[in-house]
Fold each of these.
Amino acid sequence: MGYRGSRAALVLVAGLLAGSLSCGHASADELYELGEYLSGDCTACHQLEGRAPGIPPITGWPVEAFVMVMVAYKEGERDHALMQNVARRLSDEDMKALAVFFEKQGQ
Ligand code: HEC
């Protein structure tokens, strides 16, 4: 019961945050904000400006390409233990949010 109640509350809060109870998809602004929030896990290595030695820049990528690369790491199609670990923790929406955020950086 408590679980159900708190879950309903969560859904309600999420709906209010999304500014709409009818639409399950986050808007571009919401994705950007989520991406900004999640990006803290990435920018320790990937710099928002300039380049860190040995770490490829990930700003200014088209959203589709960015998501494809992240999915490739997550599914193990692209081989890199570290990035695979990072990608496995992300949902599809997280990846899209990160893509939206990083596309707008460094331009
Ligand atoms: C501990 C350091 C580290 C962290 C944290 C990290 N990355 Fe990476 N990332 C790397 C390295 C190193 C590579 C190059 C991997 C390779 O050669 O395939 C890479 C590659 C990538 C690539 C492909 C770049 C290219 O040019 O092919 C993307 C996209 C990417 N990371 C996104 C992210 C995102 C998004 C996050 C946060 C959720 C993140 N990374 C967190 C180190 C990191």
Note: The helical segments are 2-17, 28-38, 63-74, 81-88, 92-103.
Amino acid sequence: MSEDIKGQYVLANRLTEIIDSGRIGHAQLFEGKNEDGAFAMALAYVQYLNCQNKKHYHEGEHQGLRADSCGECPSCKKFEQLMHTDLHFVFPNAVTPKVKGSSVSSDDFQEEFRDYVLSTKARGSMGSWFRHLGIENKQGMIRERDADNLTKELSLCSYEGGYKIVLIWMAELMNNTAANKLLKTLEEPSEKTLLLLVSERSEGMLDTILSRVQRVVVKPEVDDSAQSLSSKAQACTAEERQLFVDWLRMLFKLKMTNLSEHVDKLSTMGRERQKIFLGYALEVMRGCFLNSVAGLPVNLESGDEKFDAAFPRMIGTGNIEMIEQSLEEAMYAIERNANPKITFMKLSFNLSRGLKR
Ligand SMILES: [Zn+2]
């Protein structure tokens, strides 16, 4: 799977960790653009889940990827061809010149869909799928019939002893009747079943559905940490970058007197600047992580070579997840107009705790 999700290893590591720990939610939503790998990540996820010979790597190997499906066991082979009997797809569809009638559903197009996904490496757009299906002029939808079929599918036992999986691609194109039926299925999950939703515009989905799924956000890929860091760095002013580095040093030592003064500065930057600042912080932390586990270049630009060399080693598999989560929470809080002073103070404590791990 690693080829399909290049540039998404931080997220992939978080997902394989969840699978390994057995805390697998029965309904999950992968949110993000197909071109950024949201669908590819969902497919890699289910392949890993059912792989009979999961590979685990040592730190520093495989560019920081901690685990991967083997690609060779019978289950993996079937997943790679999208031919696994326990994997069922639901996607927008419509009456085509070949398939007519009022009862048309995803079940009528499983083969076309497999061909399409394999040929686009799961990165195609909705428009290109509709062209592939020959329904350019019609609105493809996920309808009641699809919801009925997927409920039936999930009620069956797995054929091969693993998870029974239904994957809904472009879940935002579900009509209301289908969505309400799906809701019932979400409320009464059966054992060892997994419902995966993939969506580019989850804001178009019912809140009642969103509140019942675990959400996995897939962001644009990071091909080269140094390069993407420099574009974020350009969005930050030199002064802000200095603020960031000074902050990291304080967190490292947790000097309280300086910290509260520093948090004052951060909390008066204005929300737009704060968002850019936190985005930059997230990129730097990811860059440091890739530097420490895979030796990829990162430049903190603190003006202090010793610090630039030493700091990235503080970030590893033991704390990257917590650090990312803390930063993302803070971004979310700032977006929702939370009190910036409290937000940055809380974030400072969280990061300092993370760095000590
Ligand atoms: Zn395998």
Note: The beta strands are 27-31, 55-56, 67-68, 87-90, 164-169, 193-199, 214-217.
Amino acid sequence: MTRTLKAAPAVPAVQADPREPSIFDKAHAFMAPGAFVPKVIASGLYPYFRAIERNEGTRAIVDGREVIMAGSNNYLGLASDQRVKEAAVLAMQQYGTGCTGSRFLNGTLDIHLELETRLAAFMGKEACVLFSTGYMTNMGVIEGITSKNDLIFSDHDNHACIVAGTQVSPARMRRFRHNSIGHLRRLLTRADKEYPGAGKLIVTDGVFSMSGRIAKVKELVDVAAEFDAALMLDDAHAVGVIGPGGRGSAAYFGLSDKVPLTTGTFSKSFSSLGGFAVGDHDIIEYIRHNASVHIFSASMPPSCVATVLKCLDILEEETWRLKRLWEISHYMREGFKEAGFNVWTSQAPIIPVVIGKDMSTAFRFWTDLLEEGVFVNPIVPWRGAVAGGFAIMRTSYMATHTDDDLDHILSAFERVGRRHGIGSNGVV
Ligand SMILES: Cc1ncc(COP(=O)(O)O)c(C=O)c1O
């Protein structure tokens, strides 16, 4: 088969400067010829940091070729919507390109306040605080709300930014097995014996970013109440995706009033950059005044804020988008299963296709898919991204994918699957 991908430039041999501090040794070892990353780059199969030359929502231009985008978190398909772009441009004209300061000091615009009020109302909560990214939101909220004598109970498959939050927090941290209420309960019982009276925070993704699994919110609410713990949901992949009107994972289970803290991001359904936390007034004000990343980092740029406000308008007005997104998720999940692929227990518009444990097969699979005109996200066992050491092709969908797009994606997977013995005739 002829590969049309450009060969990656050869990696020059990197020599450590003998006068250099030893802390940099690991960087030179990482990039030494024959090490893993340079080897994959030299093979022409390196799939990361690929430049997208144009992005039209369901279509992207990569290496001058149009491909179907099945690897973005642009769930509502609004990132290239003309109305959203115009709102962003208008805000930039009125307020400039950036805030050049933190919310605490000179970085609060009237539209930041408008967005906080709007989101609190949308999520049925008293108050909201914005952060500059979704990552900073979870770090900031966890760091802001916990202190030395508290305990954090974190699902094993939680996103890296939750893990980062637990690392910057002075509280003790316990990880419970993924979605295992039994294990969580055991850890809570033990903690109550060892640290009676300690404050407790249970934290979980609402929809898990790699598997598309929905957290067991009902059971978590019950366990939190039993052990006097607070429950925090990271709804990065849930707000604007699941629950009535896209109100997230607690709303999906009809339990919004039982979850005191929910975070989210604007980098997915809301096609922007930034994040938020919603909850009771005092809790949100405490976080606003205590989260280091909120106080000491510049606020969301005006164009990003205006983008989210416009996306919220559209989400509320164009109810077909969520309906279509769910039809698509169902269609694709069933389509992959019929073609013999393992999609784990995906329940959302994130559908992982399991490739196996061999990274080079995963890279070849991804390259072949791109040649078939389909862009997905190759996730390999790297820094704990996927549980169980599996490589997956993480596919994700937009309300604006057409039926033809979906069928093209499925047939491309079938062709590439046959080539690699994965799918109907293969294992995994
Ligand atoms: C579950 C989850 N939480 C938080 C984040 C961080 O959001 P952002 O990319 O907006 O910083 C992500 C991003 O992928 C995510 O998947």
Note: The radius of gyration is 22 Å.
